[in-house]
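Workshop exercise sheet. Pairs work together: one partner reads the sequence aloud, the other fills in the structure field after running the prediction. Swap roles for the next sheet.
Pair: D.N. / O.F.
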Amino acid sequence: MRIIAKWRCQLTEYDIEYVPRTLVKGQAIADHLAEFPIDDDTPINSNFPDEEILQVSDEEETTGWKMYFDGVVNSTGSGIGVVLIYPEGRHFLVASKIDFPCTNNIAEYETCILGLQAAIDLKVKELEVFGDSMLTFFQTLKQWKTKDPKLVPYHKYFEELVENFEKVSFTYMPRMKNQFAGALASLASMVSITEENLIEPLEFEITQGPAHCDMIEAVDGKPWYADIKHLFQTGQFPAFTDRHDQRTLRPIAAHFFLS
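Structure field:
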């Protein structure tokens, strides 16, 4: 901009006025193409090979072992959580409470080491590791140096564990996408665990509907939907229902139909 302003000042003595170029509108381009058409009689080949292929990727879909880890240090204590995922999709959960003073970086190293030890016990040879500890990953990839004296022995032992795998990769993952391991770590940090109340492996299920739906029982030998079916078939409410029962039955029946 400074050079253009200098040129503008030098051109004023010649009565030449600098005018910035305006944008070329789409209609002007269309008018130009219509006025000067291009003669091209090449037929259009409508044959599109491999049209059934939606995506081509150089990377093969990995179906090996995966490990997610996270460490937590808060006012209630310190905890670590690891989620190992089998190639078949099953989840193996590991959680531990840290019973000694530590920093966030130490907790992350403790967590990753615990996960690697569990993977070694399970005879895993290829492993993908995911976590939100940039320090652990960058020190492992030799991009950051380990200067903290407290972390040097952790890093050395960490490298010894990595040698037990034929193939291992480390991928940084934001904390929002690593919530499962973070929840395990938070649970371990808050719970007061003793030898008498050790927690067995947790089993998580997905509930698709309210629990009370499983408590409906047959009445007088009739199924629970007998009144709804009677309303659809006859268009009338059962004889024993009052006005309150009818107001309750009407919106419930709206979610069903006769097949």
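Discussion prompt: The first helix runs from residue 2 to 11. What would you look at next?
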